[in-house]
Structures are given as structure tokens and as C-alpha cells.
Amino acid sequence: MDDITLRDLQPGDGGWVISRHGALYAAEEGYDASFEALVAEIVAAFLRSHDAACERGWIAARGDERLGSIFVVRETATIAKLRLVLLEPKARGTGLARRMLETAMTFARSAGYAQMRLWTHESHIAAGKLYAAAGFQLVSTTPAQAFGRPVVDQIWECWL
Hints:
Layout: E1 5-8, H1 13-29, H2 33-49, E2 56-62, E3 65-74, E4 79-87, H3 96-110, E5 115-121, H4 125-133, E6 137-146, E7 149-159
Parallel strand pairs: 4-5
Antiparallel strand pairs: 1-2, 2-3, 3-4, 5-7, 6-7
Helix pairs in contact: 1-2
């Protein structure tokens, strides 16, 4: 893990985030193209108008190889929203996801947020364990139909 850096977004990274989310979630969760469209909308909004003082995105990279992404965006003046968390399958189980989450939470604290919130699905068991270990609490679950399949939405929150 020592040779993996967490760097700010560079030109081309937004397209990679969209593409990898679309491909991995289709392969692993059976999501349709509407998920990739949602990710594209989130990435476009971030690239177009994020406030660098309180919003940031990182790419986990080993040299030129991208291994993951994580974003912090503003939900309210006091609540940061964690978005677009992705880890390539070959980087899973290495501690990189924990490092990415810690980096995002540290940034959110330094940007003055008091709380962090995220939305995920119940099927993302490893992610749920990671969030719980970092101090997040599961605050709601809602059955839904999304991305061409039934899902259970989850909202997690933590105080920073």
C-alpha cells in the first residue's frame, strides 16, 4: 500500500469514475445503465461547480493505474456527503478503502463539517462493515426499485 497515492482529480479521471462504476456495478450487482447515468450526473456536477474549500475528490493510484475513488461534497453547511466510493477488485482487502475513508473524514473535519452522511445499498456488506468500523451508524433502510432491480437503500451517518 505504500506505493499507492491518494491524489486530486486530474483530466480524464471523471470519465474513469463513471466508466468503472458502470462496469463494476453491472457485473457485481446487476445494475442497468441508469446507475452509470446517475454517476455521470454526480461527476459532472462536481467537475462543473465544486467548492474546493469544502468539497474534494480523490483517486487512489499506483503510478498511472487507478485503483479507487472517493468524494466529499456539501449537503448542508454542517453535513458532508460521502459519494462515489469505489475500489477496484484487486485492491480490496488491502486496507486501501479504510485509508480512503479516513482521508475523506479528515478532510470533512478540516472543512468544518460536523457530520457525514452517505447512501448505499444493503448488498454492499463489506462497505457497511467499513462504515460501521469508522463510526458510522445505519439510520435508515428502505426497500426500493432502482437501476433495474430491487434494492434496499441505506443511509449511514456519523459525527465528525
